[in-house]
Amino acid sequence: MTETAGTIPIIDCDVHNDFKWWNDRGAGALMSYLPRGYQEYVKMWGLNLPNDSGYPNAGDRGNRADSWAKTDFAERGTRDHGYAGTKLELMREQLLDKYNVEYAILLGQELRPLTALPNADYAAALAHAYNDYLIERELSADRRLKGAMLIPTQDVDAAVLEIERVGRHPDIVQVLVSNGARLPYGNRYYHPIFEACEAMDLPFALHTGGEGIGINGQPSLAGYGSYYVENRQVRAQGYQTHLTSMIFEGVFEKFPKLKVVFVEGGSAWLAPFLWRLDADWKALRAQTPWVKKPPSEYVWESVRFTSQPLEEPERPEQLLEILAWNRAERTLMFASDYPHWDFDSPEETFPPLPAALKRRILHDNAAELYHLTPHADPAKVAG
Amino acid sequence: MARYAICKVSELPAGGRKIVTVAGRSIGVFNIRGSYYALRNRCPHQGAPLCLGNIQGTVLPGRPYEYVYGLEDQIIQCPWHGWEFEIATGRTYFNPHRVRVKTYDVTVGPLADDDVTLETFEVTTEGEYLILHA
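Predict the joint structure of the above. Result:
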């Protein structure tokens, strides 16, 4: 028996908002949230974020071509009169209303590379400004929107203060960093961040991106690939590095209630990777004796993955086997990545799934992780 | 197969497109350098509105490190995942996916008595219309 996606309320765990597009005002939208000194800095230098990897993207400037529509797309004849789908009205039309989305988690866009800035103070100011802006200007606009807050990982003390400052806001549901980093995320340097996340019941999420930019490490063991398609494949490498680090540095022993989310790095690789880790742990356990359980058990308990871009096996039914290996009924959460070009539709992406599993992936796993409950009045979510 | 009068010929100049709905199907009609084409407005991959995609050429398969651009205006690229389709045939270009999108004939001529007109335009016995056969 299958249930059609349209009957399941959907929680979309990866939606991109960009303040430049949202407000039509460029960096100006953030200005009033920055201290005066940094306002002058931005006037002179722009945001000066290291978000240009040197690689191109795909689609229409990284986005679904139809998400740039501002007026009549079908007869437009020009590409440059609109703003990508993070205009709220278009997001409602193409995502929230169209697919019966109960909640969408906004994971930002332009500001996320702030963790790759050399200047920790400026990174902290940008995170502070973005989080305030996000809460006041975007999350308040529609009850279906929840947000991920940014932190300056260059300064752990500042990051903890920021989590304590805005992390209790009811519309903030997780803390977000990028895959690209200076140290694997299990390193003890980061532990105060995890302590704060655990104390405030905020999942710690990594989103693909930031690999090899700014002060971050090179994107792969062997440096830089030549092409964008190569750079997309370093996601799983990075996530495997961070996940292994978190397990063997004892993050899940020290912070047993912490939840970690890996966004947009695939998940078909997970189970074979854990088989390897479990086997190695049996031989090497004594080198990290605080790791008391097989690595896979920490993952089933504490780690979640988002679905997009969903792997497309040679035969669609092969995906069902992979989902079973990965215990998707607990670990996998739907994400569309709207409005990016590699958008996954909740109705078209998955092969036919058993009804219970489909509901876990499209809704329940995320509802439990983020403590999201149905809207009291679904007719009044917009505005 | 029915005949649907889309518009007067003059209303769809070269480079233009119209998205129409006939019998519940969304179809894109294109004027490319004076030739008319029509495609089903639904990508067989994930159901995206294919006919809203950019019309362009593409870089042809070649030897390593060689970039040769060709097929100018013969390719429509799906607005979501970038799959490329040949407008004339509906086939995916380079055919990696072995799927195709339905194509329809578009002809130019006077209105026939039983033509279904899709928009309110002044019907006269004179003039030439675009007729979609779908």
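Chain B touches chain A at residues 15-19, 28, 45-49, 51-54, 77, 79-82 (CB under 8 Å).
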